[in-house]
Amino acid sequence: MAKDVVEMRHITKQFGNFKANDDISLTLHQGEILALLGENGAGKSTLMGMLSGLLKPTAGQILIDGKEVEMDSPRDAKNLGIGMVHQHFMLIPAFSVLENIILGDEPLKQGRIDYKQAEKDITALAEKYHLDINLKAKVADITVGMQQRVEIMKALYRKANVFIFDEPTAALTPQEIEQLMKIFRTLAAENKSIIFITHKLKEIKEAADRCIIIRAGKVIDDVMVADVAEEKMAEMMVGRKVRTTVDKEPVDQTKTVLEVSGLNVEKDGLAAVKNLNLTVHTGEIVGVAGVDGNGQSELIDALTGLRKIKSGSVKVNGKEYANHSVREITEAKVAYIPEDRQTVGLILPMTIAENLVLKNYYHAPYNKQGILNYNKINADGRQLVKDFDIRSQSEKEAVGSLSGGNQQKVIVAREIASQPDLLIAANPTRGVDVGAIEYIHEKINAERNAGKAVLLISFELDEILKLSDRVVVMHAGEIVGEIDPNHTSAEELGLMMAGQKKTAAK
Amino acid sequence: METGKNKNAIIIPLLAVLSGFIVGAILMLIFGYNPIQNYGSLFTGAFGDIFSIGETLRNMTPLLLTGLGFAVADKAGFFNIGGPGQYLMGWFGAIVFVLHFKALPGIVLIIGAILVGGLCGSIWSGIAGYLRAYFGTSEVITTIMLNYISLYYVNYAIKAWLAPKGSDSSPSIPSKASLNTAFLQHLTNNSTFHWGFFIALFCAFAVWFYFNKTKSGFEIRGVGLNPSASRYAGMDVKKTIIVAMLISGLLAGVAGALDGIGNYQNISVSNSTPSVGFDGMAVALLASENPIGMMFSALLFSALQIGGLSISVFSTTPSEIVNVVMASIIFFVAIRYAFEILLAKGIIKKSNKSKEENN
Amino acid sequence: MSFTTLLMTLVSSTLVYAAPLIFTALGGTFSERSGIVNVGLEGMMVVGAFSSIVFTLDFDKTLGNATPWLAILVGGAFGLLFSLLHAVATINFRADHIISGTVLNLLAPGLCVFLTRIFYSGKGQTPVISQGLDKVTFPGLSKIPFFGEVLFTRTSLIAYLAILISIVSWYFLYRTNIGLRLRSVGENPVAADTLGINVYKYRYMGVLISGFLGGMGGAVMALTITLNFSTNTISGQGFMALAAMIFGKWHPIGAMGAAVFFGLAQSLSITSAYIPLLSHVDSVWFQIAPYLITIIVLVIFLGKAVAPAADGTNYIKNK
């Protein structure tokens, strides 16, 4: 058996009264690809934060190459040959790729940075590990995939032997994911060891040798990937059987609520949505699948009045709403659960009650001649807090002090309480725990069952397939095809998400 | 948790004030002055008799108003350092109005002067608001620049149009247009106390009501705390920014107008932008922009300024010591995090102790 | 006045007015490149002006001609000490950068006039120094036909030094590893931290350099233009330098160029009387020009500007 390069023994990490990691032990062998599986908040990132020198364990030991070590900073981890690729890349957009790679370990010549030497060294590494990067480009101008390769190069340049990847595939296209898996195998073949954090089972099956499952800060199991089925790993991750379906009742799906035709939207002068047509009827959930950055955000922003439409028509219940104000569109009974709850959906320092009236505070009975009726605002807020099971001390608590899942419930409550005809939801469960995910899915499905039209945009295929009546796939600003979620395969979807148009006649 | 925060909202400013006075005392001790005697003369200088009180309240008037102006803009996420310029424009506008329409009855002149002054102030701040809303131009820079533009422009205008040849000051306004009436002079032993004080108090209550009870105030808070979410909620962010900025400049302009027709009775060429605009910022920051709290912080800073004059009367201590005290107070407010750490440690200690006692 | 003499006067007075702005704007560049917004430049200049004047008054008898040059360094040193307040407040205690900078601006005049009254028998201003920074004629260079007379005769040596320092600053920020790191903490401190770069250290460096240069700027102002210290010695130059820094897009050479431009505008408000075309324009327009132009430039060319990405944000390290 290969030697152990990393050994973490009985690691505990405490933040205040909260135990993020509780007596966790793990080992990593040379040349091995180890997956760390767990839900959001299970403690994976905390654990890896300690291995990369960002955090210090409250108790426990870390051994590198068999020797006990203490790391006070990322620099210490680096000196021990540990390289971390963060989920949110640690890059400086204003700097060149080359500057980003050498920052902190710059080769010098007479006091100035020796860019020539750096370029030579990095080019050699890039060839050895088949990493395609453009050293001269500004990081702001390169693709997410290349940014990730820059991160990998940063670690290689620092002579890392152990690579930690935090959710490395979150923002990648299927092709880029495949490339990344290839890079993993190249690294492992060169006797580098890899730990990658994920909650996607497919990737583990595809790339990892071994998998450690973490739940609520504890190790649940340590398994060889080849021996365990995906479903079993999912169950261990969540701790119980997860419902993968919702109950769909038969409803009238004939009336058109949203009708988009010939829609063109630009972002920074470039076409982001191209000649797009889309209809959503009463009582149906239409899912928009696709990889991040293919025009989904621009599409929603255009529909909700947040972004200018260049040409095309957006009709809600037969009336034209292209380039109308956000407020006019809200008044047309369109509700919108935005993807980014903290910077778009909520005003964190304001109270729950204030956030619940964020879109209708200007209406009676809340507003009378410019004066707000706070008694009514708070009373209605209290009711919604109860109805939607928002866990809080009072409706006057600042929304920012709630957990992610409860914050999301505030948004869902507000949007559903507005009794919309059309509900637009963008990644409505991103970064919330499984309990809240199931709750939100039920609520969205209930809207459908009540005969409302729902447009769901999500990067999580599972979510799309679970909820949608119809699925359209978006790529490069266009809808490349429509599929029936009950009769499709991940392969078909993946290919379409990569831009391959559906060839078979429908 | 929430009550703990509220407690800090009062404790930290108090600690900051105390620390500011301690810094002043240390400085005086270093140079061989007697801090107790000086703080004593400061207090009597500010509150010792009815005349001093009149002066202190008069001086508090523009401080409170420019402070309110700063707070309104800041709630909308707009850092208005343009108080001095807006104040100056308000002052200038009020004097020009009164001198130009001398023949009108006094009450019309007074109301007109206040309105014109407010208008001038809000035009001045509106420029910065408009540029920020439609071009994204940093208001910190534009308001600073506008301060200097107003300074040079007003100086020029006074010399070119208002002042008699060879003079640096405009003529005085007729007494019928003055807010410093015989009644108030009589009441306060001939101090410069004027009716503007009550206008300032009214504005403080109005701003409090505006923030906490009105739809427009709700929008300003929303936009200031999170512009993206406000836009998503259908608020007109650009309009809100401009509204906030107009109100902000209006308040600073009214401050200038009240000082113009209440205190100075004319306008003169000056070397630098009026410091009261900056002092208003200090007033707002010390009170965490709570309009009611700002009445107290304005009173404190006014007392420091007026009482400070007595320091050099009764000792050789330079009266600038009060500027040091004021700046220190704001410094301690700015580093409130340091106090939060100290308080947190103190509270932890306390609670540990009480636990032990329970055991 | 002949054309060449006129041009020489214009150039030299432009440089005289520009020199303090160049130093201070460079100071602002260092601070903001490291991520600390610095509206306190004005206060740093006040401290620099005050300390350099006091030093000159005390030592001109013993140190002779070297006094004003040493006084500039003294001004820088006190500016640096003063900027420590800003560094501690913003870097360690998470203060809002603009508020902390404003404190410097409130504190400096109060403190310095307080000390002036103590040192100079209760007066609000110091005596006038006998030994300012004189204008110099460069030997050799001044002999170059036309250019020698315009650029190098009876001109400001310190301004040329300031220009030189702006080039050195550029080299430091854009060619050395320390410069790269300093800029990195102003762009993305979290990323810099993961690479083992001490964010606090480099931010301190940025602020202290800015204090040193700002103090020098104030000293140059006092030693070349006002020749004494009072509340009015520094009246807005710090803010103008801040504008120059922004106008120059947070780049040392750009900041220097903008400072020279502002120097020109100020110099025109005085020399325009001798310039045929401009003599009828009221001087108020030249006084207003730098401020007005800054606004216009910001609106037209910069819009949302290109400040370092993390400028004005506090870095809070996880423990």
From TrEMBL, chain A:
The keyword Nucleotide-binding applies. Residues 6-241, 258-501 form the ABC transporter domain. It comes from the Bacteria. Keywords: ATP-binding, Nucleotide-binding. Pfam families: ABC_tran. Signal peptide: none annotated. One of its GO terms (molecular function) is ATP binding. This is Nucleoside ABC transporter ATP-binding protein. It comes from Ligilactobacillus ruminis.
Automatic annotation (TrEMBL), chain B:
Keywords: Cell membrane, Membrane, Transmembrane, Transmembrane helix. InterPro entries: ABC_transp_permease (IPR001851). It is a multi-pass membrane protein. The keyword Amino-acid biosynthesis does not apply. The chain crosses the membrane at residues 12-33, 78-101, 107-128, 193-211, 241-261, 294-315, 321-343. Its main location: membrane. This is Nucleoside ABC transporter membrane protein. The lineage of its organism: Bacteria, Bacillati, Bacillota, Bacilli, Lactobacillales.
UniProtKB/TrEMBL annotation, chain C:
Keywords: Cell membrane, Membrane, Transmembrane, Transmembrane helix. InterPro entries: ABC_transp_permease (IPR001851). It comes from the Bacteria. The chain crosses the membrane at residues 34-57, 69-91, 97-120, 151-173, 204-227, 239-264, 284-307. It is a multi-pass membrane protein. It is found in: Cell membrane. Pfam families: BPD_transp_2. PANTHER family: GUANOSINE ABC TRANSPORTER PERMEASE PROTEIN NUPQ, SUGAR ABC TRANSPORTER INTEGRAL MEMBRANE PROTEIN-RELATED. This is Nucleoside ABC transporter membrane protein. It comes from Ligilactobacillus ruminis.
